Amino acid sequence: MKSKNRRGFTVVELIVYLGVVMGVIMINLMFIKMVQAGNPSEAMFWRSFQSAWTRMTLNAKANNISYRISIRDKDVIFSPMNVKRMHFDEVNVERISLPDSIHVRSQRNMIAYDDGFASPTEIIWLDSDGKIKYYQKVQMGWSGYRVERKE
User: Fold this and answer.
1) Which of 116, 74, 125 is nearest to 95 (CA)?
2) pTM for the model
């Protein structure tokens, strides 16, 4: 076989090169997203909290059930109150664990009544150093809550 002098890349080499470059770009983009989002366990906690809050409001409206929301050092508990026997299987206590990076300043118990009203309150979330990280404001009615991150 004769050996020819090559001055360029073959198609296979170009495809491998583009694959490696795309892989590096994707890893960098994922890393940038994680840095922008902050702590991934905190993001997961807030998504779980939102899901539990939505389920609570839907169950409360549909079944005329009041809920107690207990915010403690290690978890948040959504528990139904005065559940009628016919709704017992439809409604469950929901517990969400807090990530290690945040904790609540003081434990709270809130009641969301079956008519949709709750006393307005503010919950202060601290980071592991004891500095304020989030303000969570619960409004009256099923309008829900708002979380503001302190920079």
Assistant:
1) 74
2) 0.68
